[in-house]
Amino acid sequence: LFVVGDDSQSIYGWRGADINNILDFEKDFPRAKIVKLERNYRSTSTILGIANSVIEKNLKKKKKNLWTENPVGDKAVVFKAADTADEAHFVANQISYLVKSGNFTWGDIAILYRANFQSRAIEEGLRAQKIAYKVVSGVSFYQRQEIKDVIAYLRLIQNPKDNVSFDRIVNVPPRKIGRVTLQKLREFSETERISLLDTIEYCEDQKLLPDQTLQALSRFRSIIKELRLASENQPAASVLQTLIERTGYLDYLGENYQREENVKELLRFAEVSEDMLLSDFLDLVLLSTDEDRGDSGEKEVSLMTVHAAKGLEFPVVFIIGINEDVFPHQKSMYTLEELEEERRLFYVAITRAGNLLYFSYSSKSSSKKTYLYSSSMRNTSRSMFLDDLPREHVVYESHGREFAKQASDSHSIEKATYESDDTDCNLRFGQRVRHKKFGIGVVKRIEGKGSKAVATVSFFNFGTKKILASFLTFLG
Hints:
Number of helices: 17
Radius of gyration: 26 Å
Structural class: alpha/beta
Strand order of the largest sheet: 3-4-2-5-6-1-7
């Protein structure tokens, strides 16, 4: 029996993969000979130092230490952005700088993110800089089914004669409107030379369809009519939020968290547009959908989730959106096993890079408003994973100092400074701690200062507790 595996890259627990198959291998096969393949041929020693430091924080692991004969390389950059738009602007500017330097091409660069919804902002930033890109193992934001559904609703609200949009969403979510009914609507529409939406009223007046079908169609028409009236003086964000509520679209998506987050991201984008009316917002979406991304004559920058990046490698890697509740994912914070899988996922992202590595996160929300559906971005604290990065291998940057202007020919920015978020009690949101009775947990809130500081901690085996910070041991 010959087995090859890497416990540090076990990232498919949600598909049923069991890391214990690797961790317990020697117990299951006591006579097995273990050979560690620790030499790395891809990355600089700096990047490997970061990867080793990150994965070392996991309690369940095989002891390994990656090394290489490659050059030391440049320090990684941690960029603190004002919001997701600022983050995308930084990434796009830096990519342009790297390509113009002549050292890299578009195809040498990858942008990795934890969840698909995060691609929207970065796609906007790349388009603004005319940077050619491709979404790997996925589709671009505005081509996703749920986004096309919602946009079709908005277009029908804006233009009640848009029969194409009507066809797409008249039965989304399902309203028990069958193909026979839709065919009759089309026939009546052609005969009377009126829109499909107006045909509903015509059928009601003439009682041309069964009562139950007419009721379903009438409710649909009422939603469109109500929101069209609202769109005349309410911002697009308000119309979109009401649309999601009135149609029950998120309930329709069920447990499909990724599709739900995509819809929430569209709502965030509408909120950022402040008081833009629906017509202007749809014009903006149209530009985002159809805009020419430029022809570089070379391969495009690759955009993908970290899961999709496994097995790939790039000279330059940007890991974006490293915020709490996003990376690690908010649904992976309740057990030690899930949190450690998230850290392994972070490790996989880091080890995709060969020469240059960038981390970025947002320090605050993109919008001044409160999002009814934006649970994943309410908390804009930087991720606990950024605390795992060794100080000797990274530099910290924000718009206090423009990176491209400070960079030398080797792209280093050694003069950048670190901005600490630590509190007086040396604990911060997202840190891992140990308690003598309750074991290991994650800090969710800190109240008070100094010796009187009280931490709200989510313990993996005992739930959430409030405990004096002095009784907790920081695990690093």
